[in-house]
Amino acid sequence: MEKTVNQKAWFLILPVLLLVAFSAVIPLMTVVNYSVQDTFGKNEFFWVGLEWFEEMLGSDRMWDALGRQIMFSAIILTIQIPLGIFVALNMPKSGFWSSFCLVMMSLPLLIPWNVVGTIWQIFGRVDIGLLGYTLDALGISYNYTQNSFAAWATIIVMDVWHWTSLVALLAFAGLKSIPDAYYQAAKIDQASRWAIFRYIELPKMMGVLMIAILLRFMDSFMIYTEPFVVTGGGPGNSTTLLSIDLVKMALGQFDLGPAAAFSIMYYLVILLISWVFYTVMSNLDNKGA
To answer: What is the pLDDT of residue 230?
Structure first.
């Protein structure tokens, strides 16, 4: 007997598809339109083809911003993923203190991005900020508005404080899904703590860790508000990441054509690296299964 396929389910997701088309596809097509045209005002446009893409690919400014962005995301992932796993492993697994830790870990995630930037901007000031004042009292030279290393350290520590909780919560969820039978078998075999982590906990966390890595990579690669509020891309261009440079080009200089081409390449880079992360993590997960 041939099975009848019910296509009515498509009507249930039709509102979502329309919303995505309105909020994502239409603005994207507008950007594509700007990327292949030039304007001199009065809503008059002139076809330039791939000229803006060629200009951006030959621009040292874009490559420098890309290098800073890749370095920032690499540092963030290198710190936050191991730190989040470490925190999750040491959290109570049940009871009052488990709930208390989960609530406390969630608090930084509830703070809006611009507020996070403002908090750390004040926190790091030498005159009124606790961090800046303390370091200055200890004789440590710290001024994120004038020193590039201090500016980088500030935005990295700020992001680690803000988002490590997400990795920890996801890793904790993965640990909670492990049946007690696995730990009982490991105890009978007298497995070491490292062996339990290596052969039981880590493989079971690979799924949530893949989500954590993808989310943190995309967030860190598109970060704008927090570093812009704290440093404004300075001192000089030392913390001018891709998003900050793009906004300066589009709004500060009003170069809509180059900015549109820039944003499309930015978007494609994020898609490409996310696809690489997903493919590698999926292969590792399949091998461990």
So the answer is: 93
The C-alpha atoms of residue 52 and residue 101 are separated, in whole angstroms, by: 50
Radius of gyration over alpha carbons of the chain, in Å?
24
pLDDT of residue 79: 96
**Taking the CB of residue 188, how many other CB atoms lie within 10 A of it?**
8
47 three-class SS: strand
> What length does the chain have?
289
Tokens for 255, please give them. Answer: 């170069």
Per the model's pLDDT, the better-predicted residue between 289 and 119 turns out to be 119
Distance of CA 210 to the CA centre of its chain: 13
Q: How far apart are alpha carbons 135 and 139 in whole angstroms? A: 6
Task: Give me the DSSP letters along 73-124.
Answer: HHHHHHHHHHHHHHHHHHS-SSSHHHHHHHHHHHGGGGS-HHHHHHHHHHHT
Residue 26, number of CB atoms within 10 A of its CB:
10
Q: What is the pLDDT of residue 85?
A: 94
